[in-house]
Amino acid sequence: MAEEVERVYPELVTYGADGKLETVRYLALVSMLLNEIQKQAEQITSLRAKIAQDQAQRASFEQRLSALEHNLAVLDHSQNLAAALGR
């Protein structure tokens, strides 16, 4: 396992007096992982806020679209009625 960590994060491994790989510095790894988890938590919070904002905006657009469709239907009906009366 230490060999794999050495390839990615050489600063997280220790070497013996003979220069051979000994072990992983797990305490340093814990702090790095905690930092990454905190960054991801911030991203998740930000994305959740963006999703809520997008959902609210979508609801607003859907209401406006519904109102426009209603107005168009009323206008179309009025035009059909006017055309029928004008005949």
Major sheet description = 2 strands, antiparallel
Give the mean pLDDT: 93
Multimeric state = single chain
Fraction of residues in helix: over 70%
Our Rg estimate from Cα atoms comes to 32 Å
Which structural class fits the helix and strand makeup?
mainly alpha
Chart the SSEs and their pairings.
Layout: H1 2-8, E1 13-15, E2 21-24, H2 26-86
Structure write-up:
The protein is mainly alpha-helical. Helices cover 78% and strands 8% of the residues. It has one domain (2-86). It is built from 2 helices and 2 strands, in the order H-E-E-H. Strands 1-2 form a two-stranded antiparallel sheet. Strand 1 (13-15) and strand 2 (21-24) form a beta hairpin. The termini are far apart. The model has no long low-confidence stretch (mean pLDDT 93).
